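[Target chain]
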Amino acid sequence: MAMQLMVHMLAARERSLADGTHATHSGRPAYATGLVDAITGLWTAPVTPGR
């Protein structure tokens, strides 16, 4: 899941740069922070107990 997240975040950034629109993350440090926050959110998300 983390790899998918990295690919999609990079693709979204490249698309916004190609279109000349505002990128979600302004630079590499902001991109890295957003990626770490998203992966941490995935890891710490609540899990429904098994049935």
About this structure: DSSP finds two helices and no strands in the chain. The mean pLDDT is 84.
